[in-house]
Amino acid sequence: MGMAVNNLPQIREECEVFHLTDKQIREIMSRLHNDLLKGLGKDSHATSIVKCWITYIQDLPNGKERGKFLALDLGGTNFRVLIINLGENHFDMQSKIYAIPNHIMTGTGVALFDHIAECLANFMKEHNVYEERLALGFTFSFPLKQLGLTKGILQRWTKGFSCSGVVGEDVVQGLKDAIARRGDVQIDICAILNDTTGTLMSCAWKNHNCKIGLIVGTGSNACYVEKTENCEMFDGEPGKSELLINTEWGAFGDDGTLDFVRTEFDRDVDVNSINPGKQIQEKMISGMYMGELVRLALVKFTRMGLLFGGHGSDLLFERGSFYTKYVSEIESDKLGDYTSCMEVLEELGLSHATEADMAGVRHVCESVSRRAAHLVSAGIATLLNKMAEPRVTVGIDGSVYRFHPHFHTLMCDKIAQLVGPGIHFDLMLSEDGSGRGAALVAAVACRQSLGVA
Ligand code: BGC
């Protein structure tokens, strides 16, 4: 038996690569600010990395929306169909989650839309609205160039999707065609929107200060309310003083802007993803990648002999085996307690881990999740400073924000440090943004098309 060595100091040192200094964070903010301006500007938009798409959602809900609406939510880990009844100060909502099998996520666009339409028709049958003609809001959480509220051209797939024949096409048309191919249900697609937009809308229904929508889930993105005069790409009807912008900030860094803080682990995740070179900021933050970043660091430290006595396990060495939910679980253990950590390590075939190993594993998790929270905070602070309003509520959704035990606090502290004097903010968990938001957008759109605004 060798002497028990304490490797924690060395692990801490190795994890320094995940630490963002305040100077680096300020630099990231200034670069993001530049990229946002490029996205908004007429001459710079075409080549800009952060696209700042105009959403064509012109009105926030006013709380008076009423009626029965359908919503679709595609783009996270699950695909959902919802039916929502908006009433006086309350709403009720029923939903069902449908799996999107891997072969559909990476198959043809036609198969994807047929699958969605089939789930929708089955859902309508189950909820006894099969014969009704209903309005539908479609939350589609990928970068869309919107040409109107019901027309959006897919720019690129992100996260786990790569269906053929959809990039460059109108997604609403794709869904309409699939519904028409079935010919059995009557649906009016009233709006297509991003999940960040849905989150903002859903919070704005109750909280009128809500002017930023944020997702830290499978992917990462934010939308915000911008003055129309700053949106040079806007070609819609004049008259509105503000527009909702979908930043698509997950692409930030695709031109190397973030290379000065990326690590070998980030490069590894990127090179082995289905979209190398794309969504660089997202890959440093979101749930699709966070667990893998942790795993890669654990593998390196194991090979260096700093963890598990130098002995890993088959699972540890397998790509994708360390789920992001493990990070949340491990960090949920109270200080000095390693109950969840031990469970995770056992699941990974690492039951030979000592308590020192567990402290090391936990430190890796904390380093990676803290960096993610700080990067998101840099983004939110950049938006808050740009908007320069005295008080803004940020509506937030997504599995990382929702389930990570410290993400909210990390963000509150960091953003407070980064915003200019006189700017106040609240971070508000959205109750099911992408679902309810989609129904609300459909409701507002219908209100407009019926002229009963
Ligand atoms: C997509 C965004 C989306 C975000 C969160 C990103 O990969 O490009 O449109 O809002 O994920 O779901």
TrEMBL record:
PROSITE patterns: HEXOKINASE_1, HEXOKINASE_2
GO biological-process terms attached to the record: glucose metabolic process; glycolytic process; intracellular glucose homeostasis
GO molecular function list: ATP binding; D-glucose binding; fructokinase activity; glucokinase activity; mannokinase activity
Transmembrane feature ranges: none
CDD domains noted in UniProt: ASKHA_NBD_HK_meta (cd24019)
Keywords: ATP-binding, Glycolysis, Kinase, Nucleotide-binding, Transferase
Family: Belongs to the hexokinase family.
Function: Catalyzes the phosphorylation of various hexoses to hexose 6-phosphate.
Protein name per UniProt: Phosphotransferase
Organism: Papilio machaon
